Amino acid sequence: MKIAYGELIGGVSGDMFVAALLDLGLPLVKLKSELKKIPALKFEIKAAKKLVHSIRATQFHVTCPANEAPRSWQQIRRLIERSRLNSEIKACGLKIFFRLAEAEAKIHGVAVDKVHFHEVGATDSIVDIMAAAIGIHEIGIDTLQFSRIPLGHGVTRSQHGPLPVPGPATLELLKGLPVIGVDVDGETVTPTGAAIIRTLGENFGTQPSMTIAKIGYGTGQKEFFHRPNLFRLIVGETDARLKHEEMLVMETNIDDMNPQYFDHVMDRLFAAGAREVFLAPVQMKKNRPATLLTVICESAKRDQLAAIILQETTSIGVRYYPVNRLILKRESKKITTRFGAVMVKMVEPPDGTKRAAPEYADLKRVATAKNIPLKIIHDEVMRQLKK
Predict the structure, then answer these.
(1) Whose CA is closest to 121, among 171, 197, 59, 192?
(2) Alpha carbons 208 and 230: distance in angstroms, whole number
(3) Which strand (E) or helix (H) includes residue 173?
(4) How many Å apart are CA 128 and CA 18, to the nearest integer?
(5) Residue 344 contacts residue 359 (beta carbons within 8 Å)
(6) 322: helix, strand or coil
(7) In what order do the strands lie in the sheet with 201-204?
(8) Cβ-count burial of 245 within 10 angstroms (0-12 exposed, 13-18 middle, 19+ buried)?
(9) Residue 240's pLDDT is what?
(10) The pLDDT of residue 300
(11) In this structure, is the dihedral angle defined by the CA atoms of residues 241, 247, 253 and 257, taken in order, positive or negative?
């Protein structure tokens, strides 16, 4: 499986993302011919090489008519839908623009269909977003992951007047993702760049396990004194049966709570998005027996899950630390039996074999509804799988 890891060294914008794809080997001629399939857009594109802190990178330029009228989300949607682009490319571009429309709608307090884009609705932004979708498709990238997102500070100008940095649309798009403040007076991530990585990114954190094949560097128009304004795209191969995830482990030791309460605590944590919750006996200071409550979750869920632990238990503190994990490829499949339908988890280990396990909740549901032993429905499901 072809995987790409986007490293936001200086940040990311739409043109920097496209520039990195061109640096990886996306032919400019091919990109131009694909973009010409979008009707009514007038533009010219070019790419140039530039040294950024002695690193050779690609810069992507879009030239389009000045003083364009703002376009609505509906206009842009119709423009993309009427294009002669590949259906997968259209779907990708529409997903990115819909993310932007959702963010703008929330900021301005209007319905999504009423959103009018100003800077983002201009031809150059449309070209950047659709070029990103074209590049991902042409290079054949199956999955994208990104680093933590560096955010600058200060004030920038827009058609709405002066706006804080990061811009409201950018922050709205990055909600739930890991960000880090950097000493840059200015915008490091544009709304277009934020929409692209938010839509395409499957994970954000450390670089995943891969065999590196190609590296592309894209740069923007700005220059930063303390850090190179680069977006680096690393492409390689990884085992399709293994998926890398960066998770968070949260723990607390509890020695003074009614153990009956743990059932309720676990239910609340799972309902709030914890991937796993488990209990283990531990021996604390003064030889007190206690329970170690452990939660595995996405980093974006940290504060929400910590609040539940501190509200629902007698704990006065929660420790947490990042961990990486590899998970096997899995899918859910519905198996029809004479007793009813049961969901089964299909797992594929690295050796290419397959194994299956019926979902306990479904087995319990059917066994209760039919008033039969749970083992009978389990055996029936396994017989159907062997067939």
Answers:
(1) 192
(2) 20
(3) helix 168-173
(4) 7
(5) yes
(6) strand
(7) 44-52, 55-63, 211-219, 230-237, 2-8, 143-146, 201-204
(8) middle
(9) 64
(10) 82
(11) negative
Q: Return the pLDDT at 325.
A: 83
What the block records as the tokens of 153 is 């500070």
How far apart are alpha carbons 228 and 205 in whole angstroms?
20
Percent of the chain residues past pLDDT 70, beyond the cut: 97
Burial class from Cβ neighbours inside 10 Å (0-12, 13-18, 19+) for residue 44 reads exposed
Rg of the chain over CA atoms, in angstroms?
25
Question: What mean pLDDT is predicted for residues 327-339?
Answer: 85
Kindly tell me if the per-residue pLDDT of 324 is higher than 70.
yes
Per-residue three-class SS string for 184-251: EECCCECHHHHHHHHHHEEEECCCCCCEEEEEEEEECCCCCCCCCCEEEEEEEECCCCEEEEEEEEEE
Of 196, 194, 145, 205, give the one whose Cα is nearest residue 165.
Answer: 194
Give dist(CA 300, CA 203) in Å, integer.
11
Which of 33-42, 212-221, 240-249 shows the highest mean pLDDT? 212-221
* 68's tokens: 């364009």
Distance from first CA to last CA of the chain, Å, rounded?
30
Two tokens, residue 3: 């995987």
Alpha-carbon gap, residue 105 to 116, rounded angstroms: 9
Q: Is the alpha carbon torsion for 216, 218, 223, 225 positive or negative?
A: negative
Which phi and psi angles does 186 have, rounded to 5°? 150, 175
Amino acid occupying residue 18 = V
Q: How confident is the model at residue 373 (pLDDT cuts 50, 70, 90)?
A: very high
* pLDDT higher than 70, residue 257: yes
Q: Kind of pairing, strands 149-158 and 179-185? A: parallel
Q: State the pairing for strand pair 71-72/55-63.
A: unpaired
How many Cβ atoms from other residues are within 10 Å of residue 62's Cβ?
20
The C-alpha atoms of residue 348 and residue 368 are separated, in whole angstroms, by 30
Show Cβ contacts of residue 301 under 8 Å, excluding neighbours closer than 6 positions: 248, 272, 273, 274
The label of the residue with tokens 């420790």 reads 319
